[in-house]
Amino acid sequence: MLIHTDKKAYVVFSLWLRIFHWTMVLSVTALFWTGLYIGDPGFAAITGNPEPTFAIDGWFSMETMRRIHFIAGVILTFSFIFRFAGALWNRGDRLLPKFRQKRYWYGLKETTLHYLMIPQKHEHHWLRNSLARTAYMMVYIMFFFEILTGFAMYSMVNPNGILGTLFAPVITLFGGEYKVHVIHHYIAWGFLFFTIVHVYMAFREDVMEESGEVSAMVSGMKYYAHDPIDIEDLNGKRRRGERIDKPSGTTYRPSDPNDPRERELQEND
């Protein structure tokens, strides 16, 4: 564990957001693995049976795997709804990109070069950089369509039921049940790709910047030697993050809110 004696602690992730994150991790993991089996029963049938009947021989039937998949999907759906409710309640949880601000485009370039090791250190520090905000927006869009197509497929168990009637337009919109299945399938693999990149970047940031990126999703806190340029996103209160211990190191220097260069990045186009 790193000791951040020369840095200031900021509460970046609310309890609400952390609960959503870990609920999402568990539900998406369950959804992905059960989804693989539903799509190809031979994937989980490691017993060597040519026509597998059980996901794990003697334990889970296809019916059980589908039930687990549906329950995990419902949990994900409600956590997704509560995520947006939390963002409405807590401004600090609104991690969407701000396309109208100059600093968004500046930050997108700066962060991309940083991850390419050009240069190795950030010129500015961010609570949530432009690249991360853009990725989160894309993931939320993926969640929406994954949930939509998932319920649409499930509703076809009883096309004349309430769900069948409610989601019939989705089937029609995407050109049939098979195409809905294909979209659902590829979005699921998109989540796997995002997870790999996300975990890599989180550990990379933690090691190179020593900001507590990984532990932040447990404690909610990140550590910076300089005030993040988007500090006002902490519920709009510039001083909210200034807490815990007064920095004792010599490298701590709060950023100057009157710096012309930083003020320019705050302005809208």
Quick synopsis:
The chain is mainly α and 269 residues long. The chain has eight helices and two strands, in the order βαααααααβα. Strands 1-2 form a two-stranded antiparallel ribbon.
Q: Based on DSSP secondary structure assignment, what is the total number of beta strands? A: 2
How far apart are the first and last residues' alpha carbons, in Å? Answer: 42 Å
Content-based structural category: mainly alpha
User: What is the radius of gyration?
Assistant: 22 Å
Q: Number of helical segments?
A: 8
Which sheet architecture does the biggest sheet show?
A: 2 strands, antiparallel
Mean pLDDT: 77
Q: What is the CATH architecture annotation?
A: Up-down Bundle
Shape: elongated
Low-confidence stretches: 236-255
> Share of helix among residues?
55-70%
- Oligomerization state of this entry? single chain
